């Protein structure tokens, strides 16, 4: 995934085929060189999404696309976080498809400004950073439309980057969020709970409730255009009482995402941390079916053992 996944999709969308060594030493090839290929099961996407649990990729055949000729950047400044969520849906239903819609909440804005001043509005509850790309004239028209939509949707300000230096400054500020927030506290728990775009305002409300309920430092930023939020909790792993509250908060974040029709992970994957929550999203039968696929491909469980699938009784443990 990544910030341009909104318009261009994610890595799996560009993998046409693979060469794989199976856990039992067999060489197989999936897919091929064609954009369309519906011969048999889609093993390419199965392997791409398997987190190293089904085989070793030795070759990948990728689809490439040309770089767009023009890009423009505009920032919307909001005094209400949920208004920024509603603005995302309105922009996307207007017929405009930005290459990026990134969100920073007030906590992340303040953290960045304290870390490296970047001309961000620290009194705002949220900012939306939007990149538009394509033919120069079309992009110019879309920037004006987004500016008008911002004004209609409660943004107190719309800043259009007029120079390359201004564009660079805006996107650099977004990239500074992760290093900036660990200055608050040394431990960062990074999640990527993802919800349907229509549920972004509701997810913001749930995150606010969770922050207050557990008295935690919860920072929200991420690829909001496709609902892929990054609620990060900054804490101190040496403080066991705080870490227990964080564990409970993380569990509620996952529950909230699923209750709103979303998923545990839009980008980061499952690994071990999210494994205890897999059944919550997939159901007993769905999870069992995945385990049977794993057993068929890797009967000796030698490929990335202990990942993705929870052990009996496994719970989230951060300390």
Number of discrete domains? 3
Task: State the helix count.
Answer: 10
How far apart, in Å, are the first and last alpha carbons?
29 Å
CATH topology of the largest domain: Alpha-Beta Plaits
GO molecular function, one term: oxidoreductase activity
InterPro entries: FAD-bd_oxidored_4_C, FAD-bd_PCMH, FAD-bd_PCMH-like_sf, FAD-bd_PCMH_sub2, FAD-linked_Oxase-like_C, FAD-linked_OxidoTrans_Type4, Vanillyl_alc_oxidase_C-sub2
Family: Belongs to the FAD-binding oxidoreductase/transferase type 4 family.
Cofactor: FAD
Report what the structure shows.
The protein has 319 residues and is of the alpha+beta class. The protein has 3 domains: 93 residues, Uridine Diphospho-n-acetylenolpyruvylglucosamine Reductase, domain 3 (2-Layer Sandwich); 110 residues, 2-Layer Sandwich (Alpha-Beta Plaits), CATH 3.30.70.2190; 75 residues, Alpha-Beta Plaits (2-Layer Sandwich), CATH 3.30.70. A hairpin with a 4-residue loop joins β9 and β10. α3 packs antiparallel against α8. The mean pLDDT is 95. This is Glycolate oxidase subunit GlcD. Pfam families: FAD-oxidase_C (PF02913). InterPro entries: FAD-bd_oxidored_4_C, FAD-bd_PCMH, FAD-bd_PCMH-like_sf, FAD-bd_PCMH_sub2, FAD-linked_Oxase-like_C, FAD-linked_OxidoTrans_Type4, Vanillyl_alc_oxidase_C-sub2. GO terms for molecular function: FAD binding; oxidoreductase activity.
